[in-house]
Each structure stands twice: as structure tokens, then as C-alpha cells.
């Protein structure tokens, strides 16, 4: 199935954003490690969260997390410290996403994990048991989800955990988000050096926890407002907090450079509120940024800057190659369909210097089973009426009502 998108000339809408998948998935794992007594409030209804909820509730022998990368990493560590034998598997793409670094780290502290297919990749046979823990090292440059998975089980290890991260640390705000949530639930955890985190063997405490809405999802509305033809357009977003621990909350600062103003109804720290976005007349001559801490925003800014005529050089994108798809190759391919030649000028770097090519006569955006490819490219309909999105339901992974929200904002969406 494909969707054909026709964008409105003007946007004036209020969007009830989904709950943060990143926060929700961490809260669910920590809640389970605390005994499962108190479920968090405002749980996300996205596919990635649903598979964790189902797995923790039913604990079947075979746990299929489908395309949920966060669930694969977090459940691997959780099952390793939880009595029982389970086969953890997923989609064909998931079976090609590496997990060796996490498995090696868990094995080092005593976990019983075997590969059921190719070495270094899911599916995994995990025989859970109580682990001693101790000191270990792992690369900080592959995925922060590996780090967070290990940290969250630290409090239930007999000797706790001392984790040294080697090399460049990617997505550091997501690690800090994990630490903040662990502390909320009673864990004793801290950075003891610039690259060392220590977790004491102190059990979690079950507590009520409210999950704020998702700044990553907000990014697509910033993008739509930026590309909208009517400069008087306005978007109001719900359930966001000032001072959020979400790494992608940096989107408001980055879009301020592109001329989008963010106004909070209340600035009380940590209190969810509504946020209003408005355009101002400013646009930089170019944009250079290192997305090492916010890799999930890279697609949004590649599309936004190119379509807005802002040359760019974006670094810190190496982790995009091991996401739901190789997002670097996907961006280069799909942007060329729109008539923009984006180049990988160095490893983990994408640049656009204004180079154009002939756009496709009939633009069909391939989504590669990747929710963020679909959502980052959909706003291109502002400039390309009749833009087609292939496999649009992939957005269910993080933002199930994305297309409904676009309809309420005035988009005409037809099936093809």
C-alpha cells in the first residue's frame, strides 16, 4: 500500500504527541526488575513498546520483538538476569542487526547466551540466572542502547557493575536519561570518571512514574512548519517538558537556527505542558552540526535543510548504518528522487552543497521498514504535491497516529 500526500497551504493545528518510546521502554524494564508492581502512566501505544509489554507480561518461550531494536537490546540483558530459558528473535532485518558487543559483555559477567543463527546476530537462546556482575569494558561508539541495557540490570547483579566505555561515546544524553531514571527508582549509580559508570548492588524501588511525550516525534512538526508555504502557520504540541532528559529535545535549539521559535506555556522544570511553534524571518547561510548525541534527528535535518535551500555538513552519523535500515544510503537514494544530491563526504558524514539533479517524474518514497524514513520524508509533500509514501504503516513503530495527525492538520491522504 502507498499513501499519496497533498499538503495544505497553511497549518494551524494542535498535536497530541505520542509518549516517549525511549522513556517508556526504560521504565518498563526497570519496573519489571523492581518486581513489576507499579506500571508507569502514559504508556506509549507504539509497536516497539507493545512488544516489550507483551513479552514481560507473558514471558513465552519464544519472544518475537519484530523490528524493535530497543526491545532486542533491553530484553537481551533483562532475560540474562531473569530465571528461565527463552529464544529472543525478530524480523529478517533484525537478524542482520549486530548484537555481539552486548552479548560479549553479558557473557563476560557470566550470562548464558547462545546464537541460534549467525554469530553476532539474533536470534538468541538466553538461559537466565542470577549474575555476579563486576567490572567490564565495552565500546561506547556502537550504540547507547547496549550501554543502557547493561546499566539497567546493574542494580540486580550480586556485585553491582562498573562499566568503562572505550572510544568515542555516542548518544550520551540517552545514557544520562537511563541513569536519571535508574536513580528515580532508587538505584545508586553515577559517572565516576568521564568514561566510567558505577552501579551499586542496590535493588530498585517500585514507584509511580509519568512518561512525558516524545521530542523525536515533535521534530517532524518543526520540519513541516519550516517547509510550509504560509509564514503565519502555527503548531501547538502537547505533553512536552522544558529541561527534558530526552536527547532529541535539542531539536528546539537546532530549529531556532532555522527560524522556528519554541514557546512553552509553562517553564516549570519537569512539568508536561503545551509548546507552540511559530516561524520567524531568519535562515542561516549553511548549517554544520555533529549529531553524535542526537542521531535520530539527522534525517529530519537532512530533508529540512536541503528543501529549505540551506547547505549543510552533518557529522556523527556512523550509528545510522545499523538502525532499522542503513539510513545514510536511504537518505542519499530518496533525496535524489526529490532532486537533491546528498553526498557521504566522509565516514559518518553527510553533506549538501546545493547540488541538484532532475527529480523523479513520479516520486515514490521507499521507507525501508524504517519509521523515521517515512516521517522525515513525508513533509516533502509541502514542496512536492502528490508525493507517494510506500509502506506508510511503518510509522507504528514509534508514532502510530502520525497520518491521522497529518489529516487533522489539513493534509489530504489517499491510498494508492
Detailed description of the structure:
The structure is a single chain. This protein is an alpha/beta fold. It is built from twelve helices and 20 strands. It has helices at 21-33, 47-58, 69-80, 100-108, 144-153, 172-184, 215-227, 251-256, 298-307, 327-338, 371-377, 402-408, and strands spanning 2-6, 12-15, 62-64, 84-89, 112-115, 124-128, 134-139, 161-166, 189-193, 196-199, 234-240, 260-264, 273-279, 287-290, 312-315, 343-346, 349-352, 364-365, 387-390, 412-415. Strands 18-19-1-20 form a four-stranded mixed beta sheet, with helices on one face. Strands 2-11-13-12 form a four-stranded mixed beta sheet. Strands 3-4-6-5 form a four-stranded mixed beta sheet, covered by helices on one side. α1 packs parallel to α3, α1 packs across α6 (172-184) and α7 packs parallel to α9 (298-307). It starts with a strand and ends with a strand.
Please describe the topology of this protein.
Blueprint: E1 2-6, E2 12-15, H1 21-33, H2 47-58, E3 62-64, H3 69-80, E4 84-89, H4 100-108, E5 112-115, E6 124-128, E7 134-139, H5 144-153, E8 161-166, H6 172-184, E9 189-193, E10 196-199, H7 215-227, E11 234-240, H8 251-256, E12 260-264, E13 273-279, E14 287-290, H9 298-307, E15 312-315, H10 327-338, E16 343-346, E17 349-352, E18 364-365, H11 371-377, E19 387-390, H12 402-408, E20 412-415
Parallel strand pairs: 2-11, 3-4, 7-8, 14-15, 18-19
Antiparallel strand pairs: 1-19, 1-20, 4-6, 5-6, 8-10, 9-10, 11-13, 12-13, 15-17, 16-17
Helix pairs in contact: 1-2, 1-3, 1-6, 2-3, 3-5, 4-5, 5-6, 7-9, 9-11
Amino acid at each position: 500500500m502507498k499513501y499519496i500526500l497533498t499538503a495544505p497551504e497553511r497549518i494551524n493545528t494542535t498535536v497530541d504527541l505520542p509518549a516517549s518510546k525511549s522513556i517508556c521502554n526504560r521504565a518498563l524494564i526497570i519496573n519489571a526488575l523492581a518486581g513489576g508492581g507499579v506500571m508507569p502512566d502514559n504508556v506509549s501505544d507504539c509497536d516497539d513498546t507493545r512488544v516489550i509489554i507483551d513479552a514481560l507480561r507473558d514471558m513465552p518461550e519464544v519472544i518475537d520483538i519484530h523490528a524493535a531494536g530497543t526491545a532486542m537490546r533491553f530484553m537481551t540483558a533483562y532475560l540474562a538476569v531473569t530465571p528461565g530459558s527463552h529464544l529472543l528473535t525478530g524480523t529478517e532485518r533484525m537478524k542482520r542487526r549486530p548484537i555481539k558487543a552486548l552479548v560479549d559483555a553479558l557473557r563476560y559477567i557470566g550470562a548464558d547466551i547462545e546464537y541460534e543463527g549467525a554469530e553476532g546476530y539474533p536470534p538468541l537462546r538466553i538461559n537466565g540466572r542470577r549474575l555476579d556482575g563486576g567490572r567490564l569494558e565495552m565500546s561506547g561508539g556502537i550504540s547507547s542502547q547496549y550501554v543502557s541495557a547493561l546499566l539497567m540490570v546493574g542494580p540486580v547483579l550480586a556485585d553491582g557493575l562498573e562499566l568503562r566505555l572505550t572510544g568515542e561515546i555516542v548518544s550520551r544524553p540517552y545514557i544520562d536519561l537511563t541513569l536519571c531514571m535508574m536513580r528515580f527508582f532508587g538505584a545508586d549509580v553515577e559517572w565516576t570518571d568521564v568514561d566510567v559508570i558505577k552501579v551499586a548492588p542496590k535493588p530498585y524501588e517500585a514507584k509511580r512514574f509519568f512518561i512525558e511525550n516524545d521530542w523525536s516525534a515533535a521534530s517532524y512538526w518543526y520540519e513541516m512548519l519550516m517547509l510550509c508555504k504560509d509564514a503565519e502557520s502555527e503548531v501547538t504540541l502537547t505533553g512536552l517538558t522544558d529541561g527534558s532528559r530526552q536527547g532529541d529535545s535539542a531539536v528546539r535549539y537546532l530549529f531556532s537556527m532555522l527560524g522556528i521559535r519554541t514557546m512553552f506555556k509553562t517553564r516549570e522544570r519537569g512539568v508536561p505542558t503545551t509548546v507552540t511553534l511559530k516561524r520567524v524571518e531568519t535562515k542561516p547561510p549553511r548549517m554544520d552540526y555533529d549529531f553524535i548525541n542526537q542521531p535520530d534527528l539527522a534525517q529530519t535535518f537532512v530533508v529540512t535543510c536541503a528543501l529549505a535551500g540551506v547547505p549543510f555538513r552533518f557529522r556523527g552519523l556512523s550509528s545510522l548504518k545499523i538502525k532499522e535500515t542503513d539510513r545514510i544510503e536511504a537518505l542519499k537514494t530518496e533525496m535524489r528522487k526529490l532532486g537533491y544530491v546528498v553526498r557521504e563526504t566522509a565516514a559518518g558524514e553527510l553533506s549538501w552543497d546545493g547540488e541538484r539533479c532532475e527529480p523523479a517524474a513520479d516520486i515514490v518514497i521507499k521507507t525501508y521498514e524504517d519509521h523515521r524514513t517515512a516521517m522525515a520524508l513525508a513533509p516533502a509533500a509541502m514542496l512536492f504535491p502528490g508525493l507517494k509514501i510506500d509502506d506508510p504503516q511503518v510509522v507504528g513503530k514509534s508514532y502510530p497516529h502520525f497520518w491521522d495527525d497529518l489529516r487533522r492538520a489539513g493534509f489530504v491522504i489517499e491510498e494508492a
